[in-house]
């Protein structure tokens, strides 16, 4: 069975023992409510290192007061079973007092890549993400850490803060796992009604259509507008963004062309009370 | 001779070699312009660990645009000689591009202990300090790091951020080194004219008098006012603060008594163009 530890001291002791035995260690930070997407991160880590540690911590600092911190799905027993089923070696599941003891006063803030898109829609989000991920990387001291491309801007923020703070870890991005119809797997998909779940496929479909249109010579602005219209027609009540962006720093592209070689289409939209995000190589 | 390295890679290689040989390592972060106060930090580290690393980096992020970044005294050859004279093993002297490469976007901010006193007088100061010290601790990965009590609030900020980010290092505070007349040693004392240097002793004298008065039963507020008056009489043109504070979190004390067991008197005042700070156990 996957071993569960709840303190930084136990985590470090286990990682130290593995490293002393010459085994490289991979960390997979999660907020639990695990699905096949998370398990694919563990499997990817297992191709690169001998030992894998998944962390489960629903981080209060990355939720605003009006967001779904209390409602966010939790279920440690099932998470542990799923991790066991793929041979994950350790589950680090700290409580809030282990992560943020009384008197905790520190926040890690970024400018640049953290500011548009999710940063504009959720102002405290990336400060919370950068703070907890930095802590997890310092706590576990892994050789690699794996994050899903599903949260693409988060991945770029983590790459940036890891470089900026000289954290001695390799950040690995893993391809988004998708349902058969193409919807990106997400813990928040559990919020969707059956009707909403059926409509949700419009998100990846609109994105694929926009990328195909731009690659066929359509103007970026026109393709973005058509994508937003397709989402509205499919029943999405609000589109926060549907933007072609520079794949590294997420800055805006010019109106007429994908500049250079690397672009990414990123989208966030609301279906009822559920906010879905997705992104694709463009 | 004390070896000088300029890259994180060389620093880590040397520290790793020492640790692999079973030798514990101490880091002494400085901004150069070394004096006996800094050397006393190296000597204190040498009583605790086998190997000492001093860093010299004048950190632009902790100076505001109107402050003395350009004028701050620099002299690497003399710094290296002084470190050699006390047997310091390594000098880490990175350039700005090694510490803050193009695209650097991260700042570590604290609330609480960073907010009053120096934090009020210099709003970006502790964000800059916390960011560079965190980087140095992650870069060097020392067993201990030694900071002077001369910068007492900085020491408390560093203790806080080290705990908050789970950095695996022991923070050691070292007593303030003083000239024979009692003035705290500081690189900024070099800015003082001979007349100002003679007047500067009023700062530690006023502090000792205030502490003696309070210990004899004087009200804190009255002792603080008398101290400020003494500094004005001695030629200080402005007193930023002259405050008895809780020694741990630097919160305000009640007006009548030093609450609990641990209090600290902290002061900052201007003599001509030079800002002097000092603090004492109260």
Description:
Chains A, B: (R)-pantoate binds at residues 62, 154. Chains A, B: One of its GO terms (cellular component) is cytosol. Chains A, B: One of its GO terms (biological process) is pantothenate biosynthetic process. Chains A, B: InterPro entries: Pantoate_ligase, Pantoate_ligase_C, Rossmann-like_a/b/a_fold. Chains A, B: It catalyses: (R)-pantoate + beta-alanine + ATP = (R)-pantothenate + AMP + diphosphate + H(+). Two copies of one chain form a homodimer. Chain A contains ten helices and ten strands. By secondary structure, the first copy, chain A, is α/β, with parallel strands linked by helices. Chain A has two domains: 3-174, HUPs (Rossmann fold, 3-Layer(aba) Sandwich), CATH 3.40.50.620; 187-281, Pantoate-beta-alanine ligase, C-terminal domain (Pantoate--beta-alanine Ligase, Chain: A,domain 2). In chain A, the strands form two sheets. Chain A has a six-stranded parallel β-sheet with strand order 1-4-3-2-6-7, with helices on both faces. In chain A, strands 8-9-10 form a three-stranded antiparallel β-sheet, with helices on one face. In chain A, a hairpin with a 2-residue loop joins β9 (263-271) and β10. In chain A, α6 (125-140) packs across α7 (152-164) and α9 (202-215) runs antiparallel to α10 (220-233). The longest helix of chain A is centred in the middle third of the chain and has 16 residues, at 125-140. The radius of gyration of chain A is 19 Å and the shape is globular. The termini of chain A are far apart. The interface between A and B is medium-sized, with 29 and 29 residues. β5 (106-110) of chain A pairs antiparallel with β5 of chain B.
